[in-house]
Amino acid sequence: MDKTAISSYKALVAQYGTPISVEDFKALRSFATERKIRLSGFKDFVGDIETIKKVIDDIAEIAVDFPLILDEKCGIRLELDYGLGTDFATTESGHIIHLNAGYFSNLKELEREYEEAVSEGRFVKGTDWRAIARHETGHVVAELYHVDPLSLTFELLQTRSRLAAFEYLTDELSVYSTEYEDGREIISECFSAYYSKVGNQFAEQFLQKVGEDR
Questions:
Q1: Residue pair 66/141 in contact by the 8 Å Cβ criterion
Q2: 8-state DSSP, 133
Q3: What does the alpha-carbon distance between residue 194 and residue 191 come to, in Å, rounded to a whole number?
Q4: Looking at residues 159-170, what average pLDDT do you find?
Q5: What is the rounded CA–CA span in Å between residue 178 and residue 214?
Q6: Whose CB among 18, 24, 94, 174 lies 3.0–4.6 Å from 143's, allowing a Cys bridge?
Q7: How many Å apart are CA 30 and CA 15, to the nearest integer?
Q8: CA–CA gap between residue 153 and residue 136 (Å, rounded)
Q9: If we measure between CA atoms, which residue out of 124, 138, 130, 107 comes closest to residue 199?
């Protein structure tokens, strides 16, 4: 860890208590290994391993439809990160999902912060904190299955206007789906909605098309 990460880690220990036991770490690692998901940085996790198990289960559910995300060489690796600031999670190098240690160490805070973001329209209506892993897994699928979210959106909406498409997505999906002009967050927010089973029509159409094209 760098100095900032060490400081964040010490703050978590001071606030929430000691890291998980050796037995709990082994149980979490075994749980992940059985589902072909690699872990990094969880040996000193300060929190409830059941929270991380739910993240793993949510990824494994998506892997039923998109098995490449569990590929031995380029499949998903979950990494606990102490330097993400206010981000719940991020995806690096197309397959490394970083979870914010500060949020995932305190489920109540994570639930509260995510719910607030949903109420503001930033994330998909009806989703809860478990949509975070589903969202990030969408990025991995986009990378491994070579999905161009913006082109696919244009096709579904029968438009070539980014402005028109983004106005629609802001209202029908989420504000965050239009965060970047290249449309990279569209697939992630569709995964968030679809696998959270909130009945979002656009997300369902999007996932159906991704399934047909893969």
A1: yes
A2: H
A3: 5
A4: 97
A5: 24
A6: 94
A7: 28
A8: 19
A9: 124
Three-state SS at 90? strand
Indicate the residue type of 147.
Answer: V
Sign of the CA dihedral 149, 111, 100, 179? positive
pLDDT in tens, 138-150: 999 999 999 999 9
Q: Give the list of residues 6+ apart from residue 193 with CB closer than 8 angstroms, or none.
A: 124, 126, 127, 131, 173, 200, 202, 203
Single-letter code of the amino acid located at 114: Y
Residue type, 134: R
Which one-letter DSSP state was computed for residue 20? Answer: P
Judged against a pLDDT cut of 90, whether residue 110 lies above it is answered with: yes
Per-residue pLDDT of 86-104, as tens digits, reads 999 999 999 999 999 989 9
Residue with tokens 């980014």: 162
The tokens of 99 are what?
A: 């979870």
Q: What percent of the chain has pLDDT over 70?
A: 93
- What are the structure tokens assigned to 139, written together? 């990025």
CA–CA dist 102, 100 (Å, integer): 5
Q: How far is 72 from 141, CA to CA, in rounded Å?
A: 15
Euclidean distance between CA atoms 114 and 119, whole angstroms: 9
- Helix (H, G, I), strand (E, B), or coil: what is residue 113? helix
N- to C-terminal Cα separation, the chain: 39
- Alpha carbons 181 and 65: distance in angstroms, whole number: 27
Helix, strand, coil % over all residues of the chain, rounded to 5? 60, 10, 35
Q: Which two tokens stand for residue 53?
A: 């198990």
